[in-house]
């Protein structure tokens, strides 16, 4: 989503590029950009990490 990426990119320091960030960093910056309350972040982060883990496992199985 272009608007989401623009919001995240606005939180990156001048000397940073998107290549400097991993997927977890980008996710955290999305939470920050959308001002997600702390009480919601734990559950969202756990779910996000499960999804990333599943995607990596599926990718390994595809080889």
Overview of the molecule:
- With 63 residues, the protein is an all-alpha fold.
- Helices cover 70% and strands 0% of the residues.
- It is built from 3 helices and no strands.
- The radius of gyration is 14 Å and the shape is globular.
- The model has no long low-confidence stretch (mean pLDDT 82).
Number of helices, where a helix is a run of at least 4 consecutive DSSP H or I residues = 3
Rounded mean pLDDT score: 82
Shape: globular
Distance between the termini: 29 Å
Q: Describe the largest sheet.
A: none
Task: Please count the beta strands (DSSP E, at least 2 residues each).
Answer: 0
- Secondary-structure element order, N to C: HHH
Low-pLDDT runs: none
- How big a fraction of the residues is strand? under 5%
C-alpha-based Rg, rounded: 14 Å
Helix content: 55-70%
What is the SS-derived class? Answer: mainly alpha
């Amino acid at each position: 989503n272009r608007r989401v990426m623009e919001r995240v990119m606005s939180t990156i320091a001048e000397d940073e590029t998107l290549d400097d960030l991993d997927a977890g960093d980008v996710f955290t910056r999305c939470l920050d950009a959308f001002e997600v309350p702390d009480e919601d972040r734990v559950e969202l982060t756990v779910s996000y990490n499960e999804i990333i883990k599943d995607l990596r496992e599926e990718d390994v199985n595809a080889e």
